[in-house]
Amino acid sequence: MTTLPMSQVPDERGRFGRFGGRYVPETLFGALEQLEAEYERAINDPAFTHELHALLQTYVGRATPLTHCPQLTAATGGAQIWLKREDLAHTGAHKINNTIGQALLAQRMGKQRIIAETGAGQHGVATATACARFGLSCEVYMGAEDARRQSLNVFRMKLLGAQVNVVETGSRTLKDATNEAMRDWMGSVETTHYILGSVVGPHPFPRIVRDFQSVIGRETREQCLAQIGRLPEAIVACVGGGSNAAGIFYPFVDDVGVELIGVEAGGRSTTAGEHAAPLAHGQPGVLHGSLSYVLQDEFGQTADVHSCSAGLDYPGVGPEHAYWHDAGRVSYTAVSDDAALAAFRCLAETEGLIPALETAHAVAEAIERAARMSPEQHLVVNLSGRGDKDVQEAMRLLGETPKP
Amino acid sequence: MSRIDDIFRQLRREQKAALMPFVTGGYPSLETTREVLPALERAGASIVEIGFPFSDPIADGPVIAASMYESLQRGTTPSGLFECVASLRESLSLGLIAMVSESIVWRIGTDEFVQRAAEAGFDGLIVPDMDPDDANDLYAAVEKADLALSLLIAPTSSEARIRKLVARCRGFVYLLARVGITGESDHTPEIAGQVERLRAMTDLPIAVGFGVSRPEHVRAVTQHADAAIVGSALVRRMGEADDPAGAAETFVRELVTGLATPSHSAS
Fold it and tell me: Does any domain span residue B43?
């Protein structure tokens, strides 16, 4: 029996194995089909790929470096730890890789109005940035709880000319912001493009976002070969919806020698409602347009979730992660709020880098894992975002948390 | 499904159209749902859609979304709705349709959900967010249980797409009167062209919903289609009233006065 390489997904129905698909009201189907067709045309159009590449280079600041961490490695006493520095991308996180790409697609489709959902606000800021750059009008939906936690990003979006619509329904976090963005799109679909920020949602979003984010993994691959002389033993990334992880993992999924580790938000405990780890504690189900792992009750109602980081505070995960999980290609683990906060502080002290709270989950796992590896081995962490946005929230949380 | 077929067959013979009110299951309480179904039958409804409350209803506007949230807060479950319908089934001649997200159907299990719905006395399902590419199991299950099944058809659906969707419908098709989410509208729906296009592709009765909120809207819809679906306008009145079932009965009596003779009956 011959099997296709793991990278040959999704199929033409938007399926990653059995996951993915297009579970949306029919009203959205036309726009999804249009997006899929335009995306196919665009990636086969040298003018598009050239413009995207130029923007990533001269506006976003790519390639982002691969940084060795001598101090953290010494403190850990194990594998060489490297950071893929998405925190140095314009706006301070990887989200911009996708928003620039999708804004270009929106222009090609003649859509002048953009909507987006945001959790931590990084995707909202990245969308508002791309819209400012291309002269598109922009509305961002954000849960009221997240707007409180991330007030700095709310102001940044407004500075960039975006309208921020604060969502007071449901749990008032990322899932509810996503609901409102989809409702808006149901009525505005002919003139509006929805820039979804993660590898979730109906086909073709999981594929498009993965592809635009895969620049992270392609660069990492080249940089490892140049700086280490070979591929690393392991790559670690945090997973909420899973866009930064999909971006760095995807170019490595066919390299069976590279271990890939996704880190979900373990929150306060493994009790339902106290974490945001659908791959660790959930089961397959349908949410926001695709079949993937979700946190639901026994009747399919979306469960409450918790994480100290707004960007991981989501009850679902991208369908490609579900596929990698079930195939055993990526191992997924969960890191608690406390461990993430300890890593947040540790990376600042040892390497002079303040990571986003989301990213700190990956750093915590990397420190543990590297300690069990030998100094001849190499481990790469996707440093998906910088932590300036989190400093205020971290101050509040560290005040309540015993010093690590 | 024989009941849904019989209802539409009978109406066609009489050159009449159907009023299909939508109520949110368990809103404002399960007791209300128990009272409102007989009230809707008395008022002249032919078929009632019972919305299964869902935590993330992306096709629904503020009125229905809030009613679902409140119903869930009160602890409404699919089992509760099945029991409610089962206890009333024998006393009602209404057709009963479950409007339910695929998230709920998938989690409970397609075969089990369909079987339990049929046992409770439901005559069919509308699954508004179903992926038709993944609907084989669902279609097989409703066929086996002899229930109706309807996926949504949008004004923006292409002919090829409509053919695919219609092939996954039994009993009737659900045509959206407009682009957008559920909610009341001041505009009279203009659906003649859409219905005509759909008639060329299917013989199934056509029900039209989204933005149908007044007797004159019901008239505009049923001059062409076989049934008019009214949701938000009814759910809002039920939420505002001290006697939700009574308010529903009064409003549906008004809506029924708008029923016209569908174009299909002439043919």
Answer: yes
End-to-end distance of chain B based on CA atoms, in angstroms? 24
Residue B252 touches partner A, C-beta closer than 8 Å:
no
Cα dihedral B67, B73, B74, B77 in deg (nearest 10): 90
Pick B102's closest partner by Cβ from A183, A286, A299: A286
- Give the integer Cα–Cα distance in Å for A140 and A122: 11
Structural domain that includes position B242: 3-262
pLDDT tens, B44-53?
A: 999 999 999 9
Instruction: Mark yes or no for CB contact A30/B156 under 8 Å.
Output: yes
Asked if residue B204 is part of any domain, the answer here is yes
Where would I find the H helices in A135-242?
A: 144-149, 151-159, 174-188, 205-213, 215-227
Nearest by CB to residue B181, choosing from A30, A187, A284, is A187
Q: How many domains does chain B have?
A: 1
Model pTM? Answer: 0.97
| pLDDT tens for each residue of A98-133 | 999 999 999 999 999 999 999 989 999 999 999 999
**Is there a contact between A30 and B154 if contact means CB atoms under 8 Å apart?**
yes
Residue B267 covered by a domain: no
Q: Which of B5, B49, B102, B184 is the catalytic position?
A: B49
Residue B158 in any domain: the answer is yes
The CATH number of the domain where B153 resides is what?
A: 3.20.20.70
Query: ω before A63 within 30° of 0 (cis)?
Result: yes
